[in-house]
Amino acid sequence: MEKSTSLSEKLYLLSVHPQKGGILFSAGTAFNYASIGALVLELVLEKNIAVEDKRVKILGLNSKNSLHRFMLDKMKEAKKPFKVSRWIHKFNFSFKHIRREIESGLVQKRMIRLEEKRFLFFRWKKPFVLNKQVVIKLQSDVENQILQGTGNEEEIMLLTLIKPCGLLKRVVPDKDKRKIAGKKLKQMMEENQVSEAVSAAVAAAHAVAISVAASSAAVAASASR
After folding, report:
1. Which tens digits make up the pLDDT trace of 63-87?
2. Exposure string (b/e) for 195-206, b if CB count within 10 Å is 16 or more?
3. Secondary element (H or E) of residue 55
């Protein structure tokens, strides 16, 4: 895996079905929120922001990364420090742009290809992994980091997004190991307050989205009777 591959790009690669392409069903809409969470953590790593008491504090606006600048431009407009959960929610409205930027970076690095798909009036681009061995190694590395532990801050940040993104089964296929992995991930989050704040915000945002979707479906079903 290239050193230049970001947290959000690694999360994306893990979320793509290794054989069939497309985002894994287990990730679903959680992938959207987890990707935004990964970008927030990237800003922390780059020291553009800090997360204090679950609120985002801007430290600097300079960045060579266009996606980071996009997020910082939005954040600087806030009149007071917002909670991470609020930013996760707000940036979800811009997720199409965010996803395109992440995909563009991976295409340029020749890690994925995008295939045009069409059904009736709907069009979309389906991602396929170009070098499966790279992703297999990434999956193996992540599994080992969870089970054996790591002191690397960036690795810990990625690990704490695995479960909220619905990727635990993908990363740790063995059922018995997965039980151990779940406990270790919980411990990691307890020891890293920033990662815990972001992963908790991702999980909460996804839970709200599911609840709203379920309520809308129930209302629609009731109206059709």
Report:
1. 999 999 999 999 999 989 999 999 9
2. bbbbbbbbbbbb
3. strand 55-58
